[in-house]
């Protein structure tokens, strides 16, 4: 074998090594880009819409299908969210996502959107110096409430169809609550936050009532049993011995003496109260 043969062998080995390294680098780059692209947002506890919301100012919602199984309906409690809201966080969110179009200072000028100072005490399309969309003007006079401003901030185009406000909305519940708290802090004499929903203790209450009824039933039955036992099982006082001694044959239990006699103290005979009262005192006698 000449040098040409070995050159071919080394060349083939080198080509295989380079091919394997190239495939490895290609696979790493592909899978890394998929992870950064948000296809695995479930690992972070979010959805594809949440991922898009954190990266783009404007986007169209993507319909998400359920992974299967029974869906548990969650009750939305705006009162509880507002009770724990942080107006400071709301201010930061407002400056980051709303201040491009809106001002909130008292007497502030309008921008792309109207000034929002005191908004929670006003109605839709309340500013005469701002040109609202025809869709917003169609709802003029409708009062802004905590519930309506929450729906508006979540998805403006869904709350008022045809609005020209190009804003995707704030999809996180706690983020919206913080912004609403900030808007309330910039509204003189803002209405009180709604009360949190009452806790559902119906099932527990019924269970407790059932236990109480059962306990009462057991107690009644116990009282009845005690009353019955007390009336039927009270023992009479033991009878007093008379002191009379009778000789009894210990073998055949007869009164005839056959060398196996024993003495037994007799119990009193049953008497009536009248007989006992009239009976004379007895003396001890021994029968031989």
Protein traits:
single chain, 288 residues, mainly alpha, Cytochrome Bc1 Complex, Chain D, domain 2, two-stranded antiparallel ribbon, 10 helices, 3% strand, disordered C terminus
Query: Helix and strand succession?
Result: HHHHHHHHHEEH
Summarize the biggest pleated sheet: 2 strands, antiparallel
| Percentage of residues in helical conformation | 40-55%
Shape: elongated
Mean pLDDT: 73
- The tally of strands reads 2
Low-pLDDT ranges: 34-44, 224-229, 231-235, 275-288
Rg of Cα set:
49 Å
| CATH homology group of one domain | Cytochrome c-like domain
Percent of residues in beta strands: under 5%
- Second CATH tier, the architecture of one domain: Orthogonal Bundle
Q: What is the CATH first-level class name of one domain?
A: Mainly Alpha
Task: Note down, in words, how this protein is organized.
Helix 4 crosses helix 8 and helix 6 packs across helix 8. The protein has helices at 3-36, 48-55, 78-83, 87-97, 134-137, 146-154, 156-159, 173-185, 202-232, 273-278, and strands at 245-249, 261-265. Helices cover 44% and strands 3% of the residues. The chain has a domain at 78-185: Cytochrome c-like domain (Cytochrome Bc1 Complex, Chain D, domain 2). A two-stranded antiparallel sheet has the order 1-2. Residues 34-44, 224-229, 231-235 and 275-288 have low confidence and may be disordered. The chain is mainly alpha-helical.
Question: What is this entry, summarized?
Answer:
The protein is mainly alpha-helical and 288 residues long. Helix content is 44%, strand content 3%. It has helices at residues 3-36, 48-55, 78-83, 87-97, 134-137, 146-154, 156-159, 173-185, 202-232, 273-278; strands spanning 245-249, 261-265.
């Amino acid at each position: 074998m000449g040098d040409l043969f070995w050159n071919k062998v080394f060349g083939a080995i080198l080509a295989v090594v380079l091919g394997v390294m190239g495939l490895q680098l290609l696979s790493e780059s592909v899978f890394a880009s998929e992870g950064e692209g948000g296809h695995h947002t479930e690992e972070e506890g979010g959805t594809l819409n949440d991922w898009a919301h954190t990266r783009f100012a404007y986007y169209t919602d993507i319909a998400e299908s359920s992974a299967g199984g029974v869906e548990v309906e969650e009750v939305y409690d705006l009162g509880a969210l507002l009770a724990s809201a942080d107006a400071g966080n709301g201010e930061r969110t407002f400056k980051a996502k709303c201040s491009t179009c809106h001002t909130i200072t008292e007497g502030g000028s309008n921008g792309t959107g109207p000034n929002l100072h005191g908004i929670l005490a006003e109605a839709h399309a309340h500013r005469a110096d701002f040109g609202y969309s025809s869709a917003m003007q169609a709802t003029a006079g409708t009062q802004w409430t905590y519930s309506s401003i929450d729906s508006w901030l979540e998805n403006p185009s869904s709350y008022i169809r045809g609005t020209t406000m190009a804003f995707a909305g704030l999809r996180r519940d706690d983020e919206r609550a913080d912004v609403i708290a900030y808007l309330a802090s910039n509204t003189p004499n803002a209405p009180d936050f709604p009360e949190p929903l009452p806790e559902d203790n119906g099932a527990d209450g019924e269970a407790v009532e059932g236990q109480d009824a059962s306990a009462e039933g057991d107690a009644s039955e116990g009282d009845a049993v005690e009353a019955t036992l007390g009336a039927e099982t009270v023992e009479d006082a033991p009878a007093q011995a008379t002191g009379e001694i009778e000789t009894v044959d210990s073998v055949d239990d007869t009164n005839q003496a056959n060398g196996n006699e024993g003495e037994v103290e007799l119990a009193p005979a049953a008497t009536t109260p009248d007989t006992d009262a009239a009976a004379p005192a007895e003396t001890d006698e021994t029968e031989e």
